[in-house]
Amino acid sequence: MHLKDATLLVVDDEPYYCEIAKDWFEREGCRVLTADDGVAALAVVEKEKVNAIITDIRMPRMDGVEFIRRLKASGSYMPTAVALSGFSDLPPREAYDLGIEAQLSKPVSRKVLISAVEAALTDRAQLWAGPALPGKRVAIEAQFGTLQTARDHHQIAFGRGGFCMRSDRMVPDDSGVEFHLVFGDQSQLLHGQGTLRWTSPEEHAIGVEIARVQEGLDWLSELARQNKSVSFIPRSPEAL
Q: What is the pTM of this model?
């Protein structure tokens, strides 16, 4: 979806930030709705079809985290979400599991905010189809049975923008990775690049945001489309 075709909801208890974001995105052709806290935002979403949400984290009555949590739990639909905050209130693992695709610190520039929302609205097949990313990356390799078997045994889980899987390969967060995943005796290959967003040595689990796909693009894109109401990156392979 293009920005000019999108309906956005900006949620912030500071009128200044609502007005600034509203102006920025209306200049891009968007329809922009506003709310001053999570309670008001839930009321808007009940009445309006929203394509993307830009929400502050710290707000009175209901903060941004609780708002997104309730929206996800409603089981209706999950718009793409970008979180803004002057504080590091939300660990990446929890944010991605809730469905938040990007966390940006206030103050944020117009270019950065627009770019984040634009990427969130782009179809994954288009987003992941670009040329391979340059530079050396950490290799992540795994072989599974069928996808269903891997899910049933809690080995891997896919979200709208990435996957988490069992792994003993622990590298620093935000490291570039190249993944090569084989399903069902090589009948389905997934090969691409991404970013390691979180690791859990205690649980032997990692979370990867996908950036490019060289093999298995159609299959992986369809998995993403089927997960519109779940996490961006699940917090555990047991999540689905």
A: 0.89
Q: How many CB atoms lie within 10 A of CB 222?
A: 12
Same-domain pairing of 12 and 118: yes
pLDDT score of 138 more than 80: yes
Instruction: Give 166's contacts (C-beta < 8 A, 6+ positions apart).
Output: 154, 155, 156, 204, 205, 237
What angle is formed at CA 167 by the lines to CA 164 and CA 172, rounded to 5 degrees?
A: 80
Residues forming a β-bridge with 103 = 83
| Burial of 111 per CB tally in 10 Å (0-12, 13-18, 19+) | exposed
**CA gap 150, 168 in Å, rounded:** 17
Could you give the residue ranges of the DSSP H alpha helices within 179-239?
217-225
Based on the domain organization, do 61 and 166 belong to the same domain? Answer: no
- pLDDT at residue 92 greater than cutoff 80: yes
Cβ–Cβ < 8 Å for 167, 196? no
